[in-house]
């Protein structure tokens, strides 16, 4: 008699492989090519960061969520993929929210992922740890907001966030992940099938042929045409079609600050050095990925000449942008790449370039203004003024056209926009549409991480104060970032006095003769103190060549600088000499 022994099934046959919410989020991001996370660890996402590193993602950990968010938004602008910012709940979420709102305002694709408290406790307001209805708070400040409650919905939730961030006019998206989501378990195979690879997340939006024909007809009739490129044109990465259109049409052009380098600022058709002349005297203005917002005086006022003296063409992916401030006689709705390709194709072989009178007027004004500025940029004085210092940095960028430039401040920003020429697209990051301060270190870190190129961050001492602790992050990751602080001892300038006669310093004055360079030394980087433009040029050149984290404290004349930089008109001044209920 044969005895048959029943074999016990192996454990693997009884228990299927499992995955959890942590790994599903990581797998969903990786499936869509999102492999870098900017954030700050803490409850409930600490382990998520560790696991993401284990799975081969790059996780850049910051000292403050706001700067991680600025890094994510800059990454979105540079790559056309949503930058990912990861924060803890409530206070950390709120810190990241400023950057999310800034990304939406600037049309940068970004996803803010925040852990959150449990819904059943939050909804009854029972006092959970860091309790906050984060989804409700985020909704008004971003393009879209989603919450994922179940592990099987992670794939579709992340897919929706990606598509919302990059489609149409890009922007910020909030993704709420409650703590209970992360440890949820499901079968590995079911989890794999639940993931979604987003197909064509930002499909081309082809302009109507009639819109192209109308726009070209308006241009043909122009006597004094002008093209203005905004950062939307730079984001589009339609560089070849833009260059070909400009050169074939012969149109003079202006580039807004983050569009600088689409064509070199030294291009013969660039009207940057004659900005006031062309804005005032052009009869047809074509806006490409640029908005008629405060940065262009809303298309109104003295800088634009007589009311009704010009016609506007506008190319934008957002239909609601048309007629937002001024009548647009030729709206062209579509993505910038498709629109510029169609505009280029419509020029034809018989296109008539602008009249010589107009181009000669522009060139004469350019030569005049460049001549006036030349001497100031070469001034090697102690203490330095803004022009002499920026003249030195202008040389650095000219010698390294592929380097990234980050710029913020008041006078430091306003003057650098016009002085430092850019030669390649998407090499300049600054405060953008909102004019928000503190973007410098986050943007510099993202520029280094995403491009691998050396980064020059030119900071006003006030702007640096918002984000200065991130120099430790720069050193920790050994990034090729050279930070230059224009130190004039205060906001706008360091010579203001307290009108009350109190021992307190004026509200705009900082510690005199501060040595910011020693902050970088504290974290193992290189610190340099300079007092002349020649010293500044040498220190920055060496830093950019070495690729080592460096901070240069550039000592600027405390009296240099003007109130609010070039936008003093936005800073109301009191005309009343008395206070209510008291004497003068």
How is this fold's topology laid out?
Blueprint: H1 11-14, E1 18-20, H2 21-31, E2 36-39, H3 46-54, E3 58-61, H4 65-79, E4 83-87, H5 91-106, E5 110-116, H6 119-123, H7 134-138, E6 144-147, H8 154-166, E7 172-178, E8 185-187, H9 188-194, H10 209-220, E9 225-229, H11 231-235, H12 239-249, E10 253-255, H13 275-281, E11 284-288, E12 311-316, E13 330-333, H14 336-347, H15 356-377, H16 386-399, E14 404-408, H17 411-419, E15 428-429, H18 440-451, E16 455-460, H19 461-467, H20 471-476, E17 481-487, H21 517-522, E18 526-530, H22 533-546, E19 550-555
Parallel strand pairs: 2-3, 2-4, 4-5, 5-7, 6-7, 9-10, 9-11, 11-12, 12-13, 14-15, 14-16, 16-17, 17-19, 18-19
Antiparallel strand pairs: 1-8
Helix pairs in contact: 2-8, 4-5, 4-18, 10-14, 12-14, 16-17, 16-22
Can you list the strand order of the major beta sheet?
Answer: 3-2-4-5-7-6
CATH architecture of the largest domain: 3-Layer(aba) Sandwich
Mean pLDDT figure: 94
Would you count the extended β strands for me?
19
Q: CATH class of the largest domain, anyone?
A: Alpha Beta
Largest sheet descriptor: 6 strands, parallel
CATH homologous superfamily (4th level) name of the largest domain: Thiamin diphosphate (ThDP)-binding fold, Pyr/PP domains
What amount of the residues lies in strands? 15-25%
Domain Thiamine pyrophosphate enzyme TPP-binding: 411-553
Region (Disordered): 562-584
Protein name: Oxalyl-CoA decarboxylase
Domain Thiamine pyrophosphate enzyme central: 212-342
């Amino acid at each position: 008699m044969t005895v048959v022994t029943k074999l016990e099934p192996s454990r693997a046959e009884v228990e299927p492989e499992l995955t959890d919410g942590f790994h599903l989020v990581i797998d969903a991001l990786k499936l869509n090519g999102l492999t870098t996370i900017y954030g700050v660890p803490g409850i409930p996402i600490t382990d998520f960061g560790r696991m993401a590193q284990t799975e081969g993602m790059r996780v850049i950990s910051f000292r403050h969520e706001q700067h991680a968010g600025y890094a994510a938004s800059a990454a979105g602008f540079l790559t056309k993929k949503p930058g990912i910012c990861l924060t803890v709940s409530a206070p950390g979420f709120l810190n990241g929210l400023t950057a999310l709102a800034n990304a939406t305002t600037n049309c940068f694709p970004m996803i803010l992922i925040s852990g959150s408290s449990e819904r059943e406790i939050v909804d009854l307001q029972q006092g959970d740890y860091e309790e906050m209805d984060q989804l409700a708070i985020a909704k008004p400040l971003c393009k879209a907001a989603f919450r994922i409650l179940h592990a099987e919905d992670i794939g579709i939730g992340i897919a929706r966030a990606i598509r919302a961030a990059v489609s149409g006019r890009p922007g910020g998206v909030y993704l709420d992940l409650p703590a209970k989501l992360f440890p949820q378990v499901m079968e590995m195979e079911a989890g794999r099938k639940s993931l979604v690879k987003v197909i064509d997340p930002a499909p081309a939006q082809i302009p109507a042929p009639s819109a192209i024909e109308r726009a070209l007809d308006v241009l043909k009739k122009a006597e004094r045409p002008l093209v203005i490129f905004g950062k939307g044109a730079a984001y589009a990465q339609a560089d070849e079609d833009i260059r070909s259109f400009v050169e074939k049409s012969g149109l003079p052009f202006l580039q807004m600050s983050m569009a600088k380098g689409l064509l070199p600022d030294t291009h013969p058709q660039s009207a940057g050095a004659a900005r006031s002349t062309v804005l005032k005297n052009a009869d047809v203005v074509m806006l490409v990925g640029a908005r008629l917002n405060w940065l262009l005086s809303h298309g109104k006022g003295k800088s634009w000449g007589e009311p009704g003296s010009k016609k506007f063409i506008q190319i934008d992916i957002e239909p609601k942008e048309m007629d937002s401030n001024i009548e647009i006689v030729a709206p062209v709705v579509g993505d910038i790449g498709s629109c510029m390709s169609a505009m280029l194709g419509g020029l034809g072989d018989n296109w008539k370039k602008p009249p010589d009178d107009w181009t000669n007027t522009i060139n004469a004004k350019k030569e005049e203004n460049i001549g006036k500025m030349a001497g100031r940029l070469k001034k090697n004085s102690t203490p330095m003024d803004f022009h002499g210092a920026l003249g030195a940095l202008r040389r650095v960028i000219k010698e390294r056209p592929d380097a990234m430039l980050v710029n913020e401040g008041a006078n430091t920003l306003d003057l650098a926009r016009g002085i430092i020429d850019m030669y390649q697209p998407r090499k300049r990051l600054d405060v953008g549409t909102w004019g928000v301060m503190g973007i410098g270190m986050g943007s510099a870190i993202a520029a280094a991480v995403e491009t691998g190129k050396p980064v020059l961050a030119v900071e006003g001492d006030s702007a640096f104060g918002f984000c200065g602790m991130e120099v430790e992050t720069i050193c920790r990751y050994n990034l090729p970032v050279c930070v230059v602080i224009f130190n004039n001892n205060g906001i706008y300038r360091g010579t203001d006095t307290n009108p009350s006669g109190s021992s307190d310093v004026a509200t705009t004055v900082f510690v005199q003769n501060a040595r910011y360079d020693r902050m970088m030394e504290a974290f193992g980087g290189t610190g340099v103190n300079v007092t002349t433009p020649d010293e500044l040029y040498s220190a920055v050149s060496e830093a950019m060549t070495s690729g080592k984290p460096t901070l240069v404290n550039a000592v600027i004349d405390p009296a240099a600088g003007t109130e609010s930089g070039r936008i003093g008109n936005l800073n109301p001044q009191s005309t009343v000499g008395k206070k209510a209920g008291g004497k003068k």
